[in-house]
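Bug report (template v2)

What were you trying to do?
Predict the complex of my protein with NDP.

What happened?
Run completed; filing so the output is reviewed.

Input:
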Amino acid sequence: MMKIGIVGGTGYTGSELLRLLVRHPHVEVVAVTSRSVAGTGVADYYTALRGEIDLAFSTLEAARLSDCDLVFFATPNGTAMNEAAVLLEAGVRVIDLAADFRLKDLDVWRHWYGMEHAAPALVEEAVYGLPEVNRAAIAGARLVANPGCYPTAVTLGLLPLLEAGAVEASQLIADVKSGVSGAGRKASTALLMAECGESFKTYSVGGHRHQPEIRETLQRATGVEVGLTFVPHLLPMVRGIEASLYAPLVRGEVDVQALFEARYRDEPFVDVLPAGSAVETRSVRGTNLCRLSVLEPQGGGMMVVQSVIDNLVKGAAGQAVQNMNLMFGWEEATGLALSALAP
Ligand SMILES: NC(=O)C1=CN([C@@H]2O[C@H](COP(=O)(O)OP(=O)(O)OC[C@H]3O[C@@H](n4cnc5c(N)ncnc54)[C@H](OP(=O)(O)O)[C@@H]3O)[C@@H](O)[C@H]2O)C=CC1
Ligand SMILES: CC(=O)N[C@@H](CCC(=O)OP(=O)(O)O)C(=O)O
């Protein structure tokens, strides 16, 4: 059994990692950190895990992370960049669920994250953990930058169109909506039930840090310069992302449905729905799937694709486990055969 550590086990993505890893056949979780509840039993804190794990939260300082084979960071941006080098030197592989190693352009990173990067050399080494784009590189990586939730949904929805040169890459639009768990578990007035429980709003209208992440990923994957308008919204639900993606068609005769089916035929976690189907977040809730629906152009020359994921699974912890499976050479779907949660 490989020994696994989780830094940030009390957050939403950390708890989702625990849900997946306690049933994974090839790993044992040996360390889970928390600053706020160190000393508390993990299964006392999460009663859903009673009988599944016999371990207490420890502080980062007390956790013996160097004894692990792999450590997940499910922590705020700017945390893993201070810890990764020591772990890598000790032979421990690292997957960061935050954004510390996602952007190769450090000036862009500094602008969006508002801090100096503590480990620029590791940014160069890190592999962006989107298996549908970087599978071979992930398999050989010591350090994986797990993608953001919106970037996963948007990139998978736009990639086949750009790879085929079927759309005008400079005029892409991503109209994206997320459940509130996307904002993490920390207390925030804007996320109170009374503030957002019966309302629907846009946010980060001046710009969102996932826009440059998506642009960089699409450009690196296709070699095409991308222009993207990205508008996020907060939905009054807990889990799930729906992305409605718009792109002007440059070649009218292209069979976009066939393009998507061919691109994702061998992908275990991308499901292209039959032509004309509508997607809904409920169909992927609790699963590691991205479901895509290609909508017919309605005469305006605009291609519309819909993409849904569970932000905590394919958008975070599930994708991180998928990456871990690739890094250790295990079957990619190990521990991820999850049914959608009941409504
Ligand atoms: N929520 C989502 O849908 C997604 C989140 N992400 C990213 O994943 C990361 C985790 O997100 P999420 O789980 O939602 O966040 P949460 O706010 O829910 O949890 C953060 C966790 O980190 C711990 N923590 C906070 N500050 C520090 C610190 N300085 N050092 C060590 N541990 C710390 C907290 O525990 P304690 O205070 O007890 O130490 C807690 O366990 C973030 O970077 C987020 O942007 C990525 C994709 C999707
Ligand atoms: C609803 C909501 O607030 N969602 C978060 C996205 C979470 C995420 O994936 O952010 P990272 O890039 O930091 O990992 C947001 O828009 O900030």
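What did the reviewer find?
The mean pLDDT is 96. The first helix runs from residue 12 to 21.
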